[in-house]
Amino acid sequence: MLFEIDKANLGKKFKEYRKNKKLTQFELSELIGLNEKQISRIEAGLNYPTYLTFVKLIEVLDIDIMEFVEETPITINPIQNEIINLIKHSNDTELKIFLNILKPLKKELKYLQK
User: By the 8 A CB rule, do 14 and 61 touch?
Assistant: First the structure.
């Protein structure tokens, strides 16, 4: 899923917006081209919507995408934070050098982990 939000909260949000629009699950399913049962499973927190379904839901229900971003807890460990700070304070030349070093290194690490 695009965002780290649990299925239950995601479903709850979609259900709340659907009800505010005074739509039934069947009407919503018709508007976005899904089966009513699929809408029910998303709202019940049993399934994540596909990316395309997610986009259709936020469009039809007129939901601001930032509502999902704001709920996303971002946890960064100290090493990630140090790397992010290093990148933030680098010029374009330094960034290109980092990228040229990291790409092959990452590829080699993946190979070694197999």
Answer: yes
Burial category of 18 from C-beta neighbours within 10 Å (exposed 0-12, middle 13-18, buried 19 and up) = buried
**Which sign does the torsion angle of CA 60, 61, 67, 72 carry?**
negative
As a whole number of angstroms, the distance between CA 30 and CA 36 comes to 8
Does residue 43 lie in a domain region?
yes
Count other C-beta atoms under 10 Å from residue 66's C-beta.
8
Confidence of residue 1 (pLDDT cuts 50, 70, 90): very low
Segment 7-30, tens digit of pLDDT: 888 999 999 999 999 999 999 999
Cα 25 versus chain centre, distance: 23
Same domain (yes/no): 41, 83: no
Domain tally, the chain? 2
Claim to verify: residue 84 and residue 33 sit in the same structural domain: no
Q: Can you give the pTM of this predicted structure? A: 0.58
Apex CA 90: angle with CA 89 and CA 93, to 5°? 170
Domain that holds residue 62: 7-70
